[in-house]
């Protein structure tokens, strides 16, 4: 693949000629160090002002491309795994070149990515299995669509298109492109309507940063008569001239920013969050992403409970635990538990631990259909401590190791120049630094939560619980 060179004029000309609209007086495009091209305010933008509009016909999806009509129904269904349909659509539209309605868009998509999957083999094996099992048979069956000599259907092209989708796609209701979801007999409710990944030109130019969002993409806004149904990007607050325009992405943690977009946010941490950290964890570098989090897998919690229960965690307990986990999921509870840099611990992990470790809580939950209480007793505290210890042991580097790496790239950080600091940094050093920033943020959270738990007043067993326990012992 040739190195990517974004051409703003070519993209904007294509966008307008294809039915898109943008406010030329308010919005421009320019590069931002460490983030690629993004949108910028050309003059003061007030709140609730339309910035640009994308009609549905301009959205690149499995249902707006003609590829589906060129394949048999069974071939199309064989591609319904993950992003396979959209990846193959991107491959085909790329092969079509100037004949594709999205030529000006695809020609200006990035071709270089700094996401971890492309640094080594992290996550690549599963993706490559999808390529060989689902895409290759269709590609080889249609040389008239996918010439054998084309560089746009190779494994490298597959990774490129997957990275583009990962970093730039949006999810929208399937009903925007098909009548399936509008069928009166549909099993989908409004809250659980099937979603699909699509590419929305111009909207995907906007970058993400923690708590700096100042615009949002709205569907089906009231439009002037000359604009067709679609999506409108509008400002959500006042934006100053030369200020970058950020879309709303729910203040993503650095782990997500790095995984999807290949960069991290490094900003001064609020004083109340720094106060939660031990001085050795701050290390005279009070920076990071206040939105960072550590996701704890439910299976990890189960094993931590088993470790604390010891001999009580026998085969019978394992069978009971599976029933408890199934009940938890049937109650629409998540099996991933977020830990954040906060004085408050997410109550869902406490309730889950009590469900697994306390028979009375389990019986009460089944009988009343209510989640367990969220009190932290000695048993719960020891299990949370075990979860954190186990997670910390998975890191090869210490906090001090990571601090040394990040200080080398960012000795100090100001909100205005965090990305400019990366401009002259060698790629390998920058990758090491990004990974260290993510690890450091996670370790700080884990150590702060552990310290918070150790200082939390432990709820003693209530007399009723003690009597119940003694009654169980006497009945044995």
Automatic annotation (TrEMBL):
Rubisco LSMT substrate-binding domain location: 323-446
Q: An example Gene Ontology cellular component term from the record?
A: nucleus
Q: Which SUPFAM superfamilies match?
A: RuBisCo LSMT C-terminal, substrate-binding domain, SET domain
Keyword match Lyase: no
Pfam families given for it?
Rubis-subs-bind (PF09273)
Q: Name one GO biological process term.
A: methylation
Q: List the GO molecular function terms.
A: protein-lysine N-methyltransferase activity
The protein's UniProt keywords, in alphabetical order, are: Methyltransferase, S-adenosyl-L-methionine, Transferase
Superkingdom of source: Eukaryota
**Name assigned to this protein:** Rubisco LSMT substrate-binding domain-containing protein
Organism, as annotated: Kwoniella shandongensis
- Mind giving the lineage of the organism this protein is from? Eukaryota, Fungi, Dikarya, Basidiomycota, Agaricomycotina
């Amino acid at each position: 693949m040739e190195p990517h060179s974004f051409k703003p004029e070519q993209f904007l000309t294509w966008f307008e000629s294809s039915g898109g609209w943008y406010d030329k007086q308010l919005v421009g495009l320019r590069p931002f160090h460490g983030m690629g091209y993004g949108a910028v305010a050309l003059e003061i933008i007030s709140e609730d002002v339309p910035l640009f509009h994308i009609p549905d016909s301009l959205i690149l999806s499995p249902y707006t491309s003609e590829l589906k009509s060129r394949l048999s129904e069974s071939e199309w269904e064989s591609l319904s795994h993950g992003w396979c349909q959209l990846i193959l659509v991107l491959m085909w539209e790329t092969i079509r070149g100037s004949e594709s309605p999205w030529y000006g868009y695809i020609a200006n998509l990035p071709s270089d990515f700094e996401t971890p999957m492309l640094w080594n083999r992290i996550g690549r094996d599963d993706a490559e299995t999808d390529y060989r099992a689902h895409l290759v048979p269709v590609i080889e069956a249609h040389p008239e669509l996918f010439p054998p000599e084309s560089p746009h259907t190779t494994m490298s092209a597959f990774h490129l298109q997957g990275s583009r989708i990962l970093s730039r796609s949006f999810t929208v209701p399937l009903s925007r492109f098909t009548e399936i979801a509008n069928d009166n007999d549909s099993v989908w409710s409004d809250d659980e309507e099937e979603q699909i990944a699509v590419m929305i030109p111009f909207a995907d130019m906007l970058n993400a940063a923690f708590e700096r969002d100042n615009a949002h993409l709205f569907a089906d806004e009231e439009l002037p008569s000359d604009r067709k149904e679609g999506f409108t990007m509008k400002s959500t607050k006042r934006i100053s001239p030369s200020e970058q325009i950020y879309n709303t992405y729910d203040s993503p943690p650095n782990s997500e920013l790095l995984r999807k977009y290949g960069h991290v946010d490094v900003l001064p941490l609020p004083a109340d969050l720094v106060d939660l950290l031990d001085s050795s964890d701050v290390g005279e570098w009070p920076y990071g992403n206040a939105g960072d989090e550590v996701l704890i897998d439910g299976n990890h919690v189960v094993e931590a409970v088993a470790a604390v229960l010891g001999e009580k965690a026998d085969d019978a307990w394992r069978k009971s635990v599976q029933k408890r986990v199934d009940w938890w999921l049937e109650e629409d509870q998540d099996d991933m538990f977020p830990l954040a840099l906060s004085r408050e611990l997410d109550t869902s992990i406490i309730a889950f631990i009590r469900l697994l470790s306390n028979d009375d809580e389990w019986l009460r939950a089944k009988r009343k259909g209510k989640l367990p209480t969220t009190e932290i007793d000695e048993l719960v505290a020891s299990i949370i401590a075990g979860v954190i210890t186990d997670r910390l042991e998975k890191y090869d580097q210490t906090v001090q190791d990571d601090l040394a790496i990040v200080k080398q790239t960012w000795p100090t950080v100001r909100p205005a120049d965090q990305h400019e600091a990366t401009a002259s940094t060698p790629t390998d050093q920058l990758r090491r630094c990004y990974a260290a920033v993510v690890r450091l943020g996670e370790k700080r959270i884990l150590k702060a939560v552990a310290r918070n738990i150790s200082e939390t007043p432990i709820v003693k067993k209530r007399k009723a619980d003690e009597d119940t326990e003694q009654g169980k012992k006497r009945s044995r």
